[in-house]
Structure formats: C-alpha cells, structure tokens
Specification:
The complex is a heterodimer. Chain A is an all-alpha fold. Chain A has eleven helices and no strands. Classes of the chains: A mainly alpha, B mainly alpha.
Chain lengths: 205, 304
C-alpha cells in the first residue's frame, strides 16, 4: 500500500543504451520494450520524483504514464538534452498528466469507476475516507502548498510526531500544528476542487 | 486487528479523531479492515519482468513465479495468525511441503536475515510487498503482492482466514464458499470449509457454521476438532430452536483438546453468545439435550 513511504530505489545511469532501444522502433513496440524490465529506469525516477515532491499518487499509474510518454516521443529524440534530463522530463510530464486527470475528473464531478478505487487506496488506509471519495481526498491533498503537503505527509503517511518534524527543521511547533489542523480539516470537508486549485497545481509542476 | 489500527503519533491520531467526530466529516468513515482487502485485490497483476528488477529477481519471479506467489500467501497467513484477532481460533495448518528454491529465498526474506548471494532480491521484494511502518497491514500487503503475481492453486485458500483476521467475516464466509465450490474433495477443501465455519461462528450464524464444519469433517474425518465444532454449533442451533442434522462421530474428550475448545469458544466476541450460554445453563435445556450432543453441551456450558 504505502510504496510512497518506502525508500525510492537508486537510479542507474542509462548511458548510450537508449540508442539501441529507440532505433527505428515504432511506439507500440517501444512501449512493450520499456515496460519489460524497465530498461530506462523510469520506475526509480518516478518514485524519486514523488518522494521529493510529496504528492500522493499511485506509483503504478505514474510509471505507466511515464512509459507511454517516453514511447510516444522517443522517435523525436536525437540525444539532446542528455538522456537523464530527457527522462526526468518524461516523468515530470507523466506526473502532471496523472494529477491533472484526477483533478479535472473531480472538477467535472465524474464518479470514480469502482474498479479504479484501488488507485487512491492510500487515502482510505490513512484517513478512513470512503473509497468513492478517495480520489477527491487525494486531489485535495495534492492541492496543498508544498510545505503543508510535506508536513502532512510526514505526520500521517510516515507516522512521524510533531516533535520529530520540528527537530527536522520543517517548522516551529505552532506552524506544524497549524498546518496539520488546517490540512486535516480540508480533508475532513472534502470540498470539490476549483479551477484555481488546478492552476496552482499546474504552477507548481 | 482494529479497523483503526494505524501507526500515527498520538497527538496526530488525537486530532484526527477530534476532527472526524464532526458528523459532517469525511474522515474515519469506513472500517478500513473491511474495505482494504477488496481494494488490494483489484490491483493489476505484475508483469513477468517487473520494472527495475535485477536478473536474480527476474529469475525468481519468472521461473518460480507460482511458488513465490504461494509462499507470499502463506507468509501472509502466518503473519495473520500472529494477530490477536485469530488467537485461539481453530485453524489447522497445512502440512509442510518440500522446500523449493523460491520458498528458500522467501524464508530468508521472512526471517530478515541477510541474503548474501543477492541482497537485492530481498530489498526488491520487501519494497514490492509495500512494507512500511504500517506493520498492522503486513498480511494484506503480502497477500496483495501474491495476488498480483497470479493466482496459483492454493494461494487463494488463505484469503478467508485473512479476512477473518481483519474482522470482515461476511466477506470471509463468501470467499470460503466460493473456494469450496471450486475445489476437489481433500485437504484444501476441508480447510476452506472450516475457514467458512470460523467466519460463520464469529457472526453468530451457528447453522451455517455447523454445516461448514460438517463438510470439513467429511473431507477429513481424522480431524476430530471439526466434528467438535460441528456438534457445538449444532447444539447452539438446538438452543435457538433451529434444526440441524447432527453428524455422528467421536467427540474429542482428551484434556488438551478440551482446553483448546474452551479457550477458542471464548477467544473472540460472538453476537448472541451470552444469551445462548444463559439458556444452556437452564435446567430444562440440560434435560432436553440429545444424547449425541451431550459432550458438546458440556464443553459449551463449561465455557460460560
């Protein structure tokens, strides 16, 4: 469940390996190659980005989106920027698309397909939100500013205490407690997100 | 396992509870133990060559995939058996089988010892099993990974007991019945029947429990505890005025088994049991117990 709090695996350098993978390969075949054993290391990159930014997102979804984006634009890649930068951009695009997709679905009040409830199971586990509302809870969480998100993540998903996060230099006791209370209150109310929330999310990404 | 068991710092948990107490709050609105197993089960299967896997991991998950899945399911069940919710419950373990490569590797994973030949296997599988600070959920995480690797014959049999450990008894009962229908007569089917019996017992459906334990006993007549549970539940049905066909057999009477039966009867709350215990003590009901159910009645009265 909480892959999110596990340590992200180390990213291995890709080197020039990409040339053999990309050469004259059509996107559907490349997609298959990239999923098979993750030769470009998109999984650790995705896990690393999420760990750094403290977004709540199911890593399988992010990986699939990153693989799809890499496969689609790979025929246009000629070696610049360097492959590591290019891959980081694909993972960033994928994160933006997954978060925006969820936010847009909530803004449009689209119900969640029960088969997709597992995508946001982490909100059920941590906050006891009913599965049909778990996507909204994730959108509300991800729309918090970076500092509040980091604090809430540490205090809930990671189970750290206020004393520990204060000792880690994440804020004063008053600041931490205020962010915690405001964050839990927002998650308690689960007001539908607005276009403004979506735009501020876009701005951060 | 408590539905709200989470590893949160006390002050965070206190604030969460305080905010959730508002009737309009969306927090803590579902018993997590009931909904999470289903959510886990819907996750898609892992590919044969999982992302970021090493050659050793691919070997383990490719050539030994079914074994790994089965062993993970067993590990999940063993982890569940350590939970207080299954203390003293009647669970008959599967007989040990020949250790295989996958099993040996996973035993090392389970033991937490260093797997010096390829430490990455342990790390990667631990990661994949979603191990985190939420130790409470470890059995489900292990089973979730097992199911994502496939559904090898035998792995699913642990699902009902895991659900029971989480307090999701109606779901456990449904799963156990589905399993029974899918299995051939034998050990695995008797386990499925008895796990269904345990789930039915926990929610006070003594007629269903009696029938389930009867089926378990017929598949494995050497397991006299199944007969004991069948007869105890049949006796409770008679106290409630329900009629159940009673299986004939020798009720186990040795002191060890009797002590186990007594402890398991009081191990977890069962709805309506106190009233049945009261009825069992009445002089009239003592006189009307059929001869075949006398030993069961005696054990049940002693548990009061």
């Amino acid at each position: 469940m909480l892959e999110l709090v596990a340590r992200a695996p180390a990213v291995r350098p890709v080197g020039s390996h990409w040339r053999r993978l990309f050469d004259e390969t059509r996107p559907p075949e490349l997609l298959e190659r990239l999923q098979d054993g993750d030769p470009l290391g998109l999984w650790p990159r995705a896990a690393g980005l999420v760990a750094e930014r403290r977004f709540v997102v199911q890593l399988d979804r992010l990986f699939e989106a990153a693989v799809a984006r890499a496969a689609i634009v790979a025929p246009l890649y000629r070696g610049r920027p360097v492959i590591e930068t290019w891959l980081a951009a694909r993972v960033g695009d994928a994160l933006r698309s997954v978060l925006a997709k969820d936010a847009a679905a909530e803004i449009e009040r689209r119900p969640v397909d029960p088969d997709d409830h597992w995508h946001h199971a982490m909100m059920v586990e941590v906050f006891g939100v009913a599965p049909p509302l778990a996507r909204r809870a994730a959108v509300v969480f991800n729309a918090f500013g970076r500092k509040r998100r980091a604090l809430l993540f540490a205090l809930t998903f990671e189970g750290r205490s206020v004393t520990q996060v204060v000792a880690a230099g994440m804020g004063t006791v008053e600041e931490v407690e205020a962010h915690l209370a405001a964050g839990l209150l927002a998650l308690s109310r689960l007001e539908p997100p607005s276009l403004k929330d979506l735009l501020s999310l876009e701005g951060e990404l | 396992m408590s539905g709200n068991a989470r590893v949160l710092a006390p002050e965070v948990e206190a604030l969460l509870l305080e905010i959730a107490a508002d009737p309009d709050s969306n927090l803590l609105r579902v018993p997590r133990a009931d909904v999470l197993p289903e959510l886990f089960a819907k996750r898609p299967p892992l590919p044969r060559r999982p992302r970021g896997s090493t050659a050793a991991e691919r070997e383990l998950l490719g050539a030994h995939r079914d074994e790994v899945s089965l062993v993970l399911a067993r590990m999940a069940a063993l982890a569940a058996l350590r939970l207080p919710s299954l203390a003293n419950a009647l669970i008959v373990p599967e007989p040990p089988e020949r250790a295989t490569v996958g099993e040996a590797a996973l035993r090392l994973l389970a033991s937490g010892e260093r797997y010096t030949d390829d430490g990455l296997v342990r790390e990667a599988l631990a990661r994949a099993a979603d191990r985190s600070r939420t130790e409470t959920w470890e059995p489900f995480s292990l089973l979730a990974l097992s199911l994502r690797l496939g559904e090898p014959k035998g792995a699913r049999q642990w699902w009902p007991i895991l659900l029971t450990s989480a307090g999701a008894h109606p779901m456990a009962l449904r799963e156990a019945k589905d399993l029974e229908m899918a299995l051939e007569p034998g050990f695995a089917r008797s386990m499925a029947s008895s796990n269904g019996g345990l789930a039915a017992w926990r929610i006070g459906r003594h007629g269903e429990a009696a029938e389930a334990y009867r089926r378990a006993y017929r598949d494995r007549p050497e397991e006299t505890l199944y007969l004991a549970y069948h007869q105890i539940n049949a006796y409770l049905c008679s106290l409630k005025g329900e009629s159940v066909e009673v299986e004939v057999g020798e009720f186990p009477s040795d002191p060890t088994t009797r002590a186990f039966l007594l402890s398991s009867l009081t191990a977890a709350p069962v709805p309506g049991l106190a009233e049945l215990q009261r009825r069992a003590q009445s002089a009239q009901s003592r006189r009307t117990v059929p001869r075949i159910l006398q030993p069961a009645a005696e054990v049940f009265r002693a548990s009061a």
